[in-house]
Amino acid sequence: MAPLNVGVVGTGIFARDGHLPVFQAHPDKFKVVAAYNKTKSKAIDFAKLAEFPEDKVYDDMDSLINDKNVDYVDALLPAQFNLDAVKRCIAANKPIQIEKPIAANMKQARELVEIAEKTDLPIAISENWSFLQSINVAKKHLPRIGEIVGFQHNSTGPFVLHNKYMATSWRQHPEHIGGFLSDGGVHQLALVTSLVGEFESISALTSQVREASGDDDIVFSTIKIRDSKCIGSFSYGSAFGATDKWIYLKIYGVNGSIMVELSNKAAPVVRVKVGSDAEHSGEEEVYNVTEDKSFGVYEEFTNFYDAVAKKDKSLLISTPRAAFHHLACVAAFIESSARKGDHVDVEKY
Ligand SMILES: NC(=O)c1ccc[n+]([C@@H]2O[C@H](COP(=O)([O-])OP(=O)(O)OC[C@H]3O[C@@H](n4cnc5c(N)ncnc54)[C@H](OP(=O)(O)O)[C@@H]3O)[C@@H](O)[C@H]2O)c1
């Protein structure tokens, strides 16, 4: 199949450092041909890096969307602008991929799912953690550990003073619910829910440790999984003092357990133990996982490429409906915490 022509909307940090290198590493599939950014000079710089002519830097989003040479739009905007970008693309009959979180709040997220599900156009949310090979490796072994009855997810780490993302004003004064809890938390939720199932209800406490975070930046919670007797815990935050970065998901079954270790993203490990009890425990099996250096972005792009090239949105993995659930979990963390940890139901689509 020929490469698809991509128009980029929002040429900020992640467009430049995250998406563009992946597009450029795979010229068989992608060619970046146009851009639009609120501050035009940044889009001109981006055009130089992406090696397309300056006359393909547009002054407004609709001109880019309506460029007949653009096969699909890749939007990297603060979440409050996602719904508008999707509406514009649907009006112009153009597929669009938007960055996570799906929206700034649940009202917008619901409207976005509604309109996305009414069109045949592929519309996807860029939640790259949904595409980790570690998930595929763990999934392969899940049936071996029997019914899943518990899980523990921990993603905690030290506050990073010189974080390039921290300097963006939309993160310092977030319009999106949960601030960093939704900004990064939806990645964690994509990983956990793809392996243990959707969250049904949550009891959580959230808190703001760092003023620079702009909103609450840590959460500790207990979870009930939908249509399952599985219960578990979910802890997230990178706002602490010096400590190791510690990311793991442990899944407990009645016939064994699986541990997904992502603390060292360059060398993830999946550990499996099979057996019904301590007396019948197999040896620990250790599977070293190779992740693409883009940590799921390449696989996410390839999935969108397939859906656009084959005109088949049913191929999409990171759908608006899936991303709705991840943001709904964040909304439930916040609601539960405001009610001193009461157990609250996660909004269903
Ligand atoms: N998947 C991941 O791991 C990951 C990692 C990082 C970021 N992201 C996502 O990528 C997106 C961009 O984040 P970033 O870190 O690159 O931030 P950023 O550098 O601030 O980029 C945001 C971009 O949106 C543009 N923008 C702001 N307000 C706008 C408006 N009203 N209309 C149109 N454009 C507007 C900004 O333009 P100006 O420059 O003119 O302000 C800027 O180019 C976010 O959705 C973020 O969640 C994802």
From TrEMBL:
Annotated Gene Ontology cellular component terms: cytoplasm
Domain annotation Gfo/Idh/MocA-like oxidoreductase C-terminal: ranges: 144-341
GO biological processes: NADPH regeneration
Domain Gfo/Idh/MocA-like oxidoreductase N-terminal: 4-121
GO molecular function: nucleotide binding; oxidoreductase activity
Gene3D superfamilies linked: Dihydrodipicolinate Reductase, domain 2, NAD(P)-binding Rossmann-like Domain
Protein name, as recorded: Gfo/Idh/MocA-like oxidoreductase N-terminal domain-containing protein
Phylogenetic placement of the source organism: Eukaryota, Fungi, Dikarya, Ascomycota, Saccharomycotina
